[in-house]
Specification:
The chain is of the alpha/beta class. The chain has 2 domains: 185 residues, no CATH class; 102 residues, no CATH class. 51% of the residues lie in helices and 13% in strands. It contains 14 helices and 7 strands. Strands 1, 2, 3, 4, 5, 6 and 7 form a 7-stranded mixed β-sheet that branches. Helix 11 packs parallel to helix 13. The two termini are 33 Å apart. The structure holds zinc ion (ZN).
């Protein structure tokens, strides 16, 4: 969030509104209202949802009122709440569009939680108090955060716990190695196909590819013989220019896409948070279908900053349980979710 949360307003959602109703109000606000709104959403173990308005004002007073609400709710000691989420909107008509230079031209960019959001989540002293209390009482309640962007997508996130740090680092190292070996394997399949492809494509297509690569500073004017390895290293340029199916046959396309995803992930992982956010907004604005590599990469960038992040696209939101949160995995955790 570029401007801080000074102007955040309480979302007008009935305390007992359904998950769907509350979320749709927030999505509507993110798509059309110029101001950010915030709300706290709580899920009971019975799966009922409750909405609590946050106070207007600065970040501190917002957090404090949330914690008081939480204490109030916990007063009965029955431990019947399971999820607790601070949500705010990143409106389409705010500074985000401007931040990526698009200003409402073209689709609204998908913009992940800001650097400030990350700092707030990590620096929230109530959150660490909560974690200590939770550990002491072995509660299964979880507390996380949500940002609803201008396309109605939800970004769930939470600070990583200190004990998760070494695990995350080891996982990042493993992933770096995996990327390299997966790339090498795919390259072995792709290179011969590419050389054939270069022989077989019509002069028009070859010219188009050369023109694109050269235009992006990837090719010297005489470099066509050396193009195969070069294209291999820049396959996602073909994808981001939308000329992939003019260059690859159907059998190559799948391998090329997998290779392009690895390249994207590799590039994202090396970016600082701010650059990764802007690049993601830019990439998501160009391609309707989000590339997996970009998403894996951006999760890694946030993990490096101490935050676990997960994007739920608007069209997938209601096929998940309410407040599924950053740790939910749609493919593998359906069963676990149903037996908390
Ligand atoms: Zn924000």
């Amino acid at each position: 969030m570029a401007s801080g949360h000074k102007d955040i307003r309480a979302a007008e959602i009935e305390r007992r509104a359904s998950w769907k109703h509350g979320i749709e109000k927030l999505q509507e606000s993110a798509r059309t209202a110029p101001r950010e709104v915030g709300v706290t959403c709580i899920r009971e173990k019975s799966a009922n949802i409750q909405w609590f308005p946050v106070a207007t004002g600065n970040e501190t007073s917002v957090r404090r009122s949330v914690f008081e609400e939480y204490n109030y709710l916990r007063g009965d000691k029955e431990d019947h709440f399971s999820r607790f989420c601070d949500i705010h909107t990143h409106p389409a008509r705010s500074s985000f569009g401007i931040a990526v230079g698009s200003r409402l031209q073209g689709p609204v960019p998908i913009f992940p939680p800001s650097g400030l959001d990350v700092e707030n989540a990590r620096g929230n002293r109530y959150h660490s108090e909560f974690e200590r209390m939770r550990a002491g009482k072995s509660l299964s309640l979880s507390w996380f955060y949500g940002v609803i962007d201008g396309r109605g997508n939800v970004w769930y996130f939470r600070p990583l716990m200190p004990e998760e740090g070494p695990h995350e680092e080891a996982r990042a190292d493993r992933r770096e190695k995996e990327i390299q070996s997966e790339k090498a394997q795919l390259a072995q399949q792709l290179l011969p196909l590419l050389r054939d492809g270069l022989k077989n494509v019509s002069p028009g297509v070859r010219e188009l590819v050369e023109w694109n690569l050269r235009g992006l500073g990837m090719l010297s004017p005489s470099g066509s013989k050396e193009m195969a390895p070069l294209i291999l290293e820049n396959i996602n340029i073909l994808f981001s220019n939308g000329i992939e199916d003019r260059f690859f046959g159907p059998q190559q396309l799948e391998v090329a896409r997998a290779y392009g995803d690895l390249l994207l992930e590799e590039q994202y992982r090396r970016l600082p948070l701010n650059d990764a956010q802007k690049r993601f907004a830019y990439d998501s604005n160009r391609s309707e279908k989000l590339r997996d590599g970009a998403l894996r990469g951006i999760y890694a960038v946030y993990a490096k900053r101490g935050v676990k992040l997960r994007l739920v696209l608007a069209e997938e939101l209601f096929s998940e349980p309410p407040l599924a949160g950053p740790d939910y995995s749609p493919r593998t955790e359906k069963v676990r979710e149903e037996n908390p």
